[in-house]
Amino acid sequence: MDPKSIAEVFQQIIDGDDIPAPAGMLKTIKTESAAKRLSGFPYSILENLWHAVFWQTIWLNRLEGKKALSFIADWQSPDPSEFPVLRTQFIANLEKARKTAGGKHFKHKMDSDEKAVKTLVAMAIHDSYHIGQINLMKRVIRKSKG
Q1: What are the structural domains, with CATH classification, of the chain?
Q2: pTM: predicted TM-score of the whole model, two decimal places
């Protein structure tokens, strides 16, 4: 896969071509709903989103040649007040990945374009997976209220 193709993948994720558009889906989730731990689910929407942003940061840092975060810090239980910031950061990171891949020049600090593209592919797959999980949890919350 080439950088332009992965940029298109991120554009499809952002636009919600095959999955719910993350910005719209996340915008309609209230903080109290995001923090709620649902029966049968191992984590809340808030914890799920925190985890997704954590990994976005790891992959974007690799592309920028920055030191990696410690994997030990994964799966935190953030304060509900962090939800709006995490929501904004998740969308901003998707945009950043798209711009990195789709820019005039494919700029990164990895050993090769191939490694950089694989990093972006991993991020796209992981983000899509968590968007689906969050959407499912949102639907369960909505159904339990009705």
Answers
A1: 3-145 (1.20.120)
A2: 0.93
